[in-house]
Amino acid sequence: MDPVDVENMTEMTEFIILGLSDNPRLQFPLFLVFLFIYFIILLGNVLMITLICVDPSLHTPMYFFLGNLSLTDICCSSTIIPKLLAIFLSGEKTISFAECIVQLYFFMGSTCVEIFLLTAMAYDRYAAVCHPLHYSLIMRHRVCGLLAAASWTIGFVPSGTITASVTHLSFCASKVIDHFFCELMPLLKISCTDTSGPEITLFFEAALISLPAFLVTLISYIFIISAILRIRSAEGKLKAFSTCSSHLTVVSVYYLSLFSMYLRPTSTFSLDQGKILSVLYTTITPMLNPLIYSLRNKEVKNALRKVLGR
Predict the structure, then answer these.
(1) DSSP string of 241-310?
(2) What is the distance between the alpha carbons of residues 100 and 80, in angstroms, rounded to a whole number?
(3) Which residue has the higher pLDDT, 205 or 22?
(4) Do residues 118 and 252 touch, judged by C-beta distance below 8 A?
(5) In the CATH hierarchy, which fold is given to the domain comprising 3-309?
(6) Which of 119, 129, 89, 150 is nearest to 227 (CA)?
């Protein structure tokens, strides 16, 4: 590092988040759009959790994991959207260093938890389709509890490692984050010190944690599709596929956006593309998840009718 960089290096106490648009005319319309999205996220996911808790017919492994998934979606969106709404409404774009780090930690943690919950749900669907006679034995309450606990633990503990490595970075005169929240890639972009530490940590955690989770999900669906193809009747195939179609839809959207975001070198990282992809998996996906499961599952529809009937 040359002397100029050393002189410009500061103890960063706050950042400036540029947000989604600099156009003053768009701030209030964007505020209304994201306020509506956040309302739908909270309404849909809280309603899903409530239905799963109060209706005995939904006390199954799949809906147990779905309840955890809804809780994760609330955590992820609540980490990001309220601050974004405040930026739209007030125009105040500063965020303290501590608030930024907390936002980064809970965003990364909830993202990792969601990956593992989707993996547990894929295994659950594999057991239901490929081993229906032994399903209740394979997916016992104890097994489901351990899988959920492991998802939350493995999600948030390693995320702390990456977040801690970011706190040791130095930031020079530029403190502008060209994003709408404190995301890892934009933070690495404005660091004036070597960022290989967080990048290596992220790579190894992706290789040792996220990649195996994806492979388990992929292999589960290979076995599921193979089992469905062996069913002779068209009605049987449709019934078997309907049990996992909602999960497959959510997994496809989630992994597509994450892979597009992270599985490429930082030198080719486009901040504008990153914003669009981030909106997809931080706001749109949490909003769509309860809608996808409620619209495609008769059990959820029946539970909703019972609750509304009361």
Answers:
(1) HHTTHHHHHHHHHHHHHHHHHHSS-GGG--HHHHHHHHHIIIIIHHHHHHHHHHHS-HHHHHHHHHHHH-
(2) 10
(3) 22
(4) no
(5) Rhopdopsin 7-helix transmembrane proteins (1.20.1070)
(6) 129
What is the per-residue pLDDT for 272? 67
Burial of 151 from C-beta contacts in 10 A (0-12 / 13-18 / 19+): buried
- Indicate the DSSP class of residue 132: G
Can you tell me the distance from the alpha carbon of 10 to that of 171, in angstroms, rounded to the nearest whole number?
6
Cα 260 to Cα 209: distance, rounded to the nearest angstrom: 18
| pLDDT of 35 above 60 | yes
pLDDT at 41: 94
- On the question of pLDDT at 31 being above 90, the answer is yes
Question: Could you give the C-alpha distances from 273 to 47, 54, 96, 188, 206, in angstroms and in order?
Answer: 32, 41, 25, 16, 21
Phi first, then psi, for residue 191 (nearest 5°) are -75, 140
> Tokens at residue 124, please?
């659950």
Name the token pair of 106: 């809970």
Does residue 8 have a pLDDT over 60?
no
| pLDDT value for 6 | 40
Give the number of C-alpha atoms closer than 13 A to the C-alpha of residue 151, restricted to the C-beta side.
25
pLDDT of amino acid 10: 43
> Inter-axis angle of helices 141-167 and 97-130, to 10 degrees?
150
Closest of 245, 241, 220, 243 to residue 231, by C-alpha: 241
Q: Which residues contact 31 (CB under 8 A, 6 or more apart)?
A: 85, 88, 89
Query: Which of helix, strand or coil describes residue 96?
Result: strand
Most confidently modeled range among 36-45, 87-96, 159-168: 36-45
CA separation for the pair 133, 264 (Å, rounded): 43
Angstrom distances, CA of residue 40 to CA of 79, 181, 285: 16, 20, 11
Does the model's pTM come out above 0.90?
no
